[in-house]
Amino acid sequence: MEQINAIGRRKAAVARVYVTPGTGNITINKRALDVYFPSSILQYIVKQPLNTLQVAGNYDIKVNLRGGGYKGQAEALRLAIARALVKINPEDKSALRAEGFMTRDARSVERKKPGQPKARKRFQFSKR
Fold first, then answer.
1. pLDDT digits (tens, 9 = 90+) for 92-122
2. Contact call for residues 102 and 7 (beta carbons, < 8 A)
3. What structural domains and CATH numbers belong to the chain?
């Protein structure tokens, strides 16, 4: 099997993954997973698709991550890894979809409107 690539997005974050057969190393922007995401919760989010299919030690994953905050980046990476695993083995799609890893979360920040302090907030109304 050659290199498989996939892309995942969440909020403003974009994750491009390159999956090759290997020993389970995850490298994000030339840094190790535990260095890039010190939080064990975010590491868990990233590894969820691999742990669901019990293939955590079978692939090396190289990631380019940009944009957004750390939570959005972790969720974008989870989606990208799930998409790459489906490219490798299409039968895994139903298991990943049942866990919700194949769904792109389209929610993002609403834009600020002119003449208002924020997206939905209005300035105080004065009758007189």
1. 999 999 999 999 999 999 999 999 999 999 9
2. no
3. 4-99 (3.30.230.10)
